[in-house]
Amino acid sequence: MKEIKVGLCGLGTVGTGVVNLLKNHKEEIKHKLGCEIVIKKVLVNNLHKQRDIAIDREWLTNNPDELVNNPDIDVIVEVMGGIEDTNLLLEQAVKNKKHIVTANKDLMAVHGQRLLRLAKENHCDIFYDASVAGGIPILRSLSDGLASDRIQKIMGIVNGTTNYILTKMTDEKLPFEPVLKEAQELGFAEADPTSDVEGLDAARKMTLLANLAFKMEIGLDDVEVSGISEISQEDITFANSLGYTIKLIGIASINRGKVEVSVEPTLLPHDHPLAQVKNEYNAVYVYGEAVGETMFYGPGAGSMPTATAVVSDLMEVIKNIRLGISGNSYISPQYETQLKQNTEKYTKYFIRMAVDDEAGTFQKITNVFSDQQVSFAKILQLPSNEKETAEIVMVTHQISKQQLLSSIENLYGLSVVNKIISYYRVDGEE
Amino acid sequence: MKEIKVGLCGLGTVGTGVVNLLKNHKEEIKHKLGCEIVIKKVLVNNLHKQRDIAIDREWLTNNPDELVNNPDIDVIVEVMGGIEDTNLLLEQAVKNKKHIVTANKDLMAVHGQRLLRLAKENHCDIFYDASVAGGIPILRSLSDGLASDRIQKIMGIVNGTTNYILTKMTDEKLPFEPVLKEAQELGFAEADPTSDVEGLDAARKMTLLANLAFKMEIGLDDVEVSGISEISQEDITFANSLGYTIKLIGIASINRGKVEVSVEPTLLPHDHPLAQVKNEYNAVYVYGEAVGETMFYGPGAGSMPTATAVVSDLMEVIKNIRLGISGNSYISPQYETQLKQNTEKYTKYFIRMAVDDEAGTFQKITNVFSDQQVSFAKILQLPSNEKETAEIVMVTHQISKQQLLSSIENLYGLSVVNKIISYYRVDGEE
């Protein structure tokens, strides 16, 4: 076999990166694989669009059949995005015994498990490392490098847009709205930023990480998600004065076979490795029973970083083709998915509230918490901007989510409590 | 094939970890591999020593032949250390078609390339990810996850002992000697700390990383090494006041096919990801042409972290046995080793000197540097503790090592320069 023929779906940012990488690193790739990679067809929407890349017009097609039903093509590289239509296309490709490399987290979070099984039945590989944390080889590290360990917790900064926004809000003491606007102008945020800002993008990636780490089938609906649009400059300042940095953290953890997956603003001690991940960078912190703390850091998006992950996956597919071992990498889930209830989810919380500044207020509040067996590690009381009110900021010891929610409900029953302004998870410290 | 039989050489810290990990994670490992791993023999020095581990006495032997010449054994796991004798043992094992997993950086840095070739000839695998940065799957990430990229630079904190010592010296403002003593008492430094403290241990690991990243055969003799025993509290304080943290950094870089590998105390900007790696932790920062900046962080040593790497490698060996593709992972060097000369090694330098505190001194010094076309980014002049002398601390712009060495030689020709107290590489900033 002298060459492997690839059908590339999509010629946007990542697709262009893939074409460039295959061209620029041609010799090294050939040395490693012992064969050449040749792009046969490229699926695009617009055949006549002007493109910033030297590409043979003959390659271009807007007909998916010329890729997925083309007997000449060995591997489909899918970097065009979309969920349902793209899924049908990839299913068809797999049924035609074509291997798949995809960077499509949206699709993999929804159809991944079924597609992986279908591929295995057809002796095909599907690799999707580019779909989580761009250039960071995190899926491989979980499935190979840490294969012998039992992963207990993953904390990920897996969305570059929100990390960029929070970094700017923290470093430049600016509110959310203007920072989002700047991020949009710089291309770090989409025109419609909802999926990033409200945590959905991160949730999709956490699903993929959790399934691989815990060997289950956790669905997107199993992930509790909250985004960053409600974080205020005051939250950041209070967190900072208590020794914490606010990050949008995806958490996946397991205890006694029960899992919890969430994406939410989280306070981390300033010296936690994740607290120091700035701007649009991504990082995935993995805690394994045997290995302890590890972290994988790098660019979470971008043309060439993502292309690196795509082409590295493509090289793995080709190695497997040449060795005749395709379709062996997928391991079916070992455990039934069991989700933790609120009474089983334990963490610390940062709680910030506006209260009447009068004698007895503090005692009433602490009574509510005592009733729920909630105790505190840190308490800060400050006069607020409004007359005759004060702000109280507290950091609890480890409590269950149930204890938190009951306490908050009961706090609202107190006339001295005007508002629970915000509450956030606190993680990453003993 | 129902089980894979392993011969374990060494039952010290890591060997004990391997036995425990195989036992504790037995079910998961079996699920992933579809077969069991069985330890058949364990090579030890002392058959009768009391051990903190439940192990079948029948397994123990002090005769290597019972492992390497035992037709019953499929894989040798070598975690006993040593170079020449161990090399002979592993050679014999490979000739007997046994696969190898080793955590032995000393051996791999010296005999690695020959052993890898011998294994390939015998259709055997050798994996050694545990030998660099303990629990961090860095060798795999270079060879698989970043396979498609062209690695341009690696900077590694790959020795936990020195990082622990430098962290304590920095955070607690203590000198080298008492911190070393404390590290020895806590078990973070050996009774004879030379190999760690003087950088040799890190140099071995950098050789392995550089060979894999640059596809060459760089020998240990090609690495320039200096350790941390000469770093003073004043160096740390001056570096800090200029915005830098001192770390013992292994650097491997390539430009136009020429490489430079060194281990030396290096100043990094405080916000560089490596500057924030504390205590005994390791981290490897990888700069790839396409992917950009990535970093891999985790425990560099210890029983269970290293065992995780060993057993993950063992699982890879077994997967290959079961798929019938052993001996395919080694890729022979693609390029001839070409080392950079001093005129081709470019970086910034921190230079600290004691000078006479008299008119014209500063001009004489800057003249010396101007003659060598050396210019500065930062300059600090301070009165020294000794009368009529001052200290000057400078950080240069990018210069060649040749420019540095010539400047220093010429500075010693000036009567106003009493001593070049220290000079260090400055890296990690634009």
Structure description:
- Two copies of one chain form a homodimer.
- With 430 residues, chain A is α/β, with parallel strands linked by helices.
- Chain A folds into three domains: 3-134 and 303-323, 3-Layer(aba) Sandwich (Rossmann fold), CATH 3.40.50; 138-299, Dihydrodipicolinate Reductase, domain 2 (2-Layer Sandwich), CATH 3.30.360; 344-426, Alpha-Beta Plaits (2-Layer Sandwich).
- Helices cover 36% and strands 27% of the residues of chain A.
- In chain A, the strands form two sheets. In chain A, strands 7, 8, 9, 10, 11, 12, 13, 14, 15, 16 and 17 form an eleven-stranded mixed β-sheet that branches. Chain A has a six-stranded parallel β-sheet with strand order 3-2-1-4-5-6, sandwiched between helices.
- In chain A, a hairpin with a 5-residue loop joins strand 14 and strand 15 (389-396).
- The mean pLDDT of chain A is 95.
- Chains A and B meet through helix 1, helix 2, helix 6, strand 12 and helix 12 of A and helix 1, helix 2, helix 6, strand 12 and helix 12 of B.
- Strand 12 of chain A pairs antiparallel with strand 12 of chain B.
- Chains A, B: Its cofactor is a metal cation.
- Chains A, B: GO terms for molecular function: homoserine dehydrogenase activity.
- Chains A, B: It catalyses: L-homoserine + NADP(+) = L-aspartate 4-semialdehyde + NADPH + H(+).
- Chains A, B: InterPro entries: ACT-like_dom_sf, ACT_dom, Asp/hSer_DH_NAD-bd, HDH, HDH_cat, HDH_CS, NAD(P)-bd_dom_sf.
- Chains A, B: Its EC number is 1.1.1.3.
